Amino acid sequence: MRNRSLRRSSSRGAEATAEDESVPAVRLENVSHEYGSTTGRFRSRSEQAVTALREVSIDVERGEVLGLEGPSGSGKSTILHAVAGLLVPTAGTVSVLGTDLTSLSDRGRTKARRRHVGIVFQRFHLLESLSARANVALPLVQAGLPKSARRERATDLLTDVGLEDRTTHLPGELSGGERQRVAIARALSTDPDILVADEPTGELDTETGASVLELLTNVGRDRAVVVASHDAATLAVADRVVTLRDGAVIEDER
């Protein structure tokens, strides 16, 4: 597997400053979140709030693969969504590269996500009508890159994840492992500083899952990677594992 596109693009080197390196890639400080509540109040008398996170504080450094472990409902996915700016927690702050996402508008969080965060979903979330290459290039359309540059970047990434002969295939023509590799390539298309992955091997067999984990480990050499999983093999590749129960951190194991 080649590393050229999986590693940080040299064109972004000027953006990395000494100040950038002095802060964690991701910082959660006393983050709590309730679903079904607005500023601490129930939306209706019949609707009860569900506490997803309870005063969670976690730092993730550049080059670190952090695993989030815990049963369903423990808060793993909520943390990923908060890091990606897909939700604003009820309390606390979530910072990406020193920028407090919770202080930004919806538009500001979207801009920060597109620039700094790549997301890998458990069930791939590929558009079935588009080829593998077109799926990978989608975020680059939003970024405003010319068609030729999008095509070249997407082709390079698919080659790097071992799918150079699948660029024109539709998702329905790909195996589960191939679809997940397309999803990872798409998440990397904008050269993000942070990658979040929700159960990235949950839909895969053992052998295919192992190859995806190798890819994520390679990606994590110069990015922050946050992986939520129930799978012991997935957590084994992490540099550090945070265990959650009922929305709270009960163990932070390096």
From TrEMBL:
InterPro entries: AAA+_ATPase, ABC_transporter-like_ATP-bd, ABC_transporter-like_CS, ABC_transpr_LolD-like, MacB-like_ATP-bd, P-loop_NTPase. PANTHER family: ABC TRANSPORTER RELATED, IMPORT ATP-BINDING PROTEIN. Pfam families: ABC_tran. The lineage of its organism: Archaea, Methanobacteriati, Methanobacteriota, Stenosarchaea group, Halobacteria. Keywords: ATP-binding, Nucleotide-binding, Transport. Residues 1-10 have a biased composition (Basic residues). The keyword Transport applies. The keyword RNA-binding does not apply. This is ABC transporter ATP-binding protein. One of its GO terms (molecular function) is ATP binding. Residues 26-254 form the ABC transporter domain. PROSITE patterns: ABC_TRANSPORTER_1, ABC_TRANSPORTER_2. Residues 1-30 are annotated as: Disordered. One of its GO terms (cellular component) is plasma membrane. SMART domains: AAA (SM00382).
